[in-house]
């Protein structure tokens, strides 16, 4: 079987980590007797400077023909404003393909300590609502510039939107430890978050085997640091998930490790798999970029394609490499981007 993958290296270290990671994925596929056929799409800030758009007008339609999208990072902040590069490419793809669930595994890989220096287990799967909520963009300004000026930012939570992200979380919890944390702030936000709690109860009725705990976002933020071993699947809104996943990334050792999957859990179609980090202009061209987040995102992609054995092989190889002390400078190691990817490939 051959899978068609849209490769979007993007800008800066996005191209470096993709170049390092893609051959490793090919090697994983070879071992399992399936193929990954990559089609490299040049959509990026360079493309923007040449064509005046981040991607062709039918870009989203082109992507629908693929089984998955594998993305590096986008952004050339000195030349192209970030709201242009992010909105017109990343957000356009997320919205165009209705990738309403953002899934991020936070785990300490073998041999990696992270800043907490605790021996408590740290293995959390954050599921973030990706298309509505606090980031809906609804609102505006009244009496602009005057003493009575008011800015309003309205959160929008739809029944369909809340239900699909919760349901996805319950499905994942079932496959993991059977524990789900639902994150709200329903003591202070009495419309949207009370609604979220009601939806949690409603969906939970279909999953009697999953143990649900409600947390307020401030409390769970602290708990991720003090008692991470009590958490497994964490489902949160767009804003809350945004913040909690940065905490998760920090605990697991930083942006060099954080991987994410953007998925349409309702109608399917290609998901988008990417490292969480950006194009890192401060380290571009020096071979300093950690490729593990991109490789981990690759494992999420293989898992989502249904190639569970290949995903597992890749994660095992990543951890063999980290356990042996292989690392880029952000991990305290001395390997280059390409060398660390090669160490993972050698461990396959
Ligand atoms: P960034 O994630 O690119 O970098 C933040 C810091 O982390 C930098 O010091 C960087 O050197 C370091 N870092 C990031 N990834 C690393 C890796 N793999 N290995 C080692 N160190 C790593 O965020 P920043 O600097 O705020 O944004 C730079 C550009 O990236 C902007 O144009 C921004 O809009 C864009 N961006 C794109 C994202 C995406 O494509 N998904 C996500 C975040 C930012
Ligand atoms: Mg964030």
Automatic annotation (TrEMBL):
<comment type="similarity">
    <text>Belongs to the isocitrate and isopropylmalate dehydrogenases family.</text>
</comment>
<dbReference type="Pfam" id="PF00180">
    <property type="entry name" value="Iso_dh"/>
</dbReference>
<dbReference type="InterPro" id="IPR019818">
    <property type="entry name" value="IsoCit/isopropylmalate_DH_CS"/>
</dbReference>
<keyword id="KW-0464">Manganese</keyword>
<keyword id="KW-0479">Metal-binding</keyword>
<dbReference type="GO" id="GO:0009027">
    <property type="term" value="F:tartrate dehydrogenase activity"/>
</dbReference>
<keyword id="KW-0560">Oxidoreductase</keyword>
<protein>
    <recommendedName>
        <fullName>D-malate dehydrogenase (decarboxylating)</fullName>
        <ecNumber>1.1.1.83</ecNumber>
    </recommendedName>
</protein>
<dbReference type="InterPro" id="IPR024084">
    <property type="entry name" value="IsoPropMal-DH-like_dom"/>
</dbReference>
<dbReference type="InterPro" id="IPR011829">
    <property type="entry name" value="TTC_DH"/>
</dbReference>
<dbReference type="InterPro" id="IPR050501">
    <property type="entry name" value="ICDH/IPMDH"/>
</dbReference>
<keyword id="KW-0520">NAD</keyword>
<feature type="domain" description="Isopropylmalate dehydrogenase-like">
    <location>
        <begin position="4"/>
        <end position="344"/>
    </location>
</feature>
């Amino acid at each position: 079987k051959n899978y068609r993958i849209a490769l979007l290296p993007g800008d800066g270290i996005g191209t470096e980590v993709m170049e390092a990671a893609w051959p490793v994925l090919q090697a994983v596929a070879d071992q399992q007797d399936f193929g990954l056929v990559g089609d490299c799409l040049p959509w990026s800030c360079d493309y923007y400077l040449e064509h005046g758009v981040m991607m062709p007008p039918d870009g989203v339609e082109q992507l629908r023909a693929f089984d998955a999208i594998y993305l590096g990072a986008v952004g050339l902040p000195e030349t192209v404003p970030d709201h242009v590069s992010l909105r017109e490419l990343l957000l356009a793809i997320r919205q165009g393909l209705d990738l309403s669930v953002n899934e991020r595994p936070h785990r300490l890989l073998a041999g990696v300590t992270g800043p907490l220096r605790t021996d408590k287990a740290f293995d959390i799967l954050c599921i973030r609502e990706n298309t509505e909520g606090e980031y809906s963009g609804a609102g505006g300004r009244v009496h602009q510039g005057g003493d009575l000026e008011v800015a309003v930012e309205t959160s929008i939570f739809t029944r369909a939107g809340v239900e699909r992200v919760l349901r996805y979380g319950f499905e994942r919890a079932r496959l993991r430890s059977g524990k789900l944390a639902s994150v709200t702030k329903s003591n202070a936000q009495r419309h949207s978050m009370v609604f979220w709690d009601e939806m949690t109860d409603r969906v939970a009725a279909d999953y009697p085997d999953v143990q649900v705990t409600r947390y307020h976002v401030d409390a769970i933020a602290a708990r991720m640091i003090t008692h991470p071993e009590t958490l497994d699947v964490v489902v949160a809104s767009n804003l809350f998930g945004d913040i909690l996943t940065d905490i998760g990334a920090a605990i697991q050792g930083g942006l060099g490790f954080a991987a994410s999957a953007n998925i349409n859990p309702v109608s399917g179609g290609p998901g988008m798999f990417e490292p969480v980090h950006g194009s890192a202009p401060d380290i571009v061209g020096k071979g300093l970029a950690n490729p593990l987040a991109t490789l981990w995102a690759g494992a999420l992609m293989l898992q989502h394609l249904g190639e569970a054995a290949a995903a597992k092989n890749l994660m095992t190889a990543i951890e063999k490499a980290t356990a042996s002390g292989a690392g880029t400078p952000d991990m305290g190691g001395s390997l280059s981007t390409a060398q660390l990817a090669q160490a993972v490939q050698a461990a396959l």
